Amino acid sequence: MTIQAHAEPLDGRLPPVTWRWDAETDILSGAFKAGRKGGGFTGTLELTDEHGSVAVVDVQQGVICGLDIVVWPEVQSSSRLVVPAQLTDGRVVLARREQPSVALLELEAPLAVWTDASETVFHLQVGEPRPADVVRVADHLYVEVDKDAGLAGFWLTGVPAFPEFDEA
User: Fold this and answer.
1) Number of separate domains in the chain
2) Is residue 161 in some structural domain?
3) pTM of the model as a whole
4) Is the Cβ–Cβ distance between 81 and 125 less than 8 Å?
5) What is the per-residue pLDDT for 12?
6) What is the pLDDT of residue 7?
7) Which of 6, 32, 46, 166 is most buried (most C-beta within 10 Å)?
8) The dihedral of CA 107, 121, 147, 73: what is its sign?
């Protein structure tokens, strides 16, 4: 199963997102106000894979407005990881669901994460690698939508260093 998504033009300025680590759980979270009026799914999209990895996407009025990486897949480091240069500013809207009372959607797909050497840029891939358009939905969050209007991944930039755990 894939989650259908499409890009819409952004009204106004690009919203800010600040990434935060929870040192005790290793969860990385970031969210922003969606700024869209109208209908659409409001709740969470839970992405899971067969190895137990979990990412949770926040959705308001159909618009992706946040991401939590809860249970990490194996993170691979790459000195060649670079945010795609060709991107557009906008909103990514999930396809309207016929069941408005549903507040949780679930999608099982392979999840993979790459980071740059400084660990300030992360790429979360949803499903198999495939060409995708990249939409900057916030200053430090980009969403990939493939040619079939499927959710293909996320780019996280400006991620702070993981906090040192004080054992004292």
Assistant:
1) 1
2) no
3) 0.92
4) no
5) 87
6) 93
7) 32
8) negative
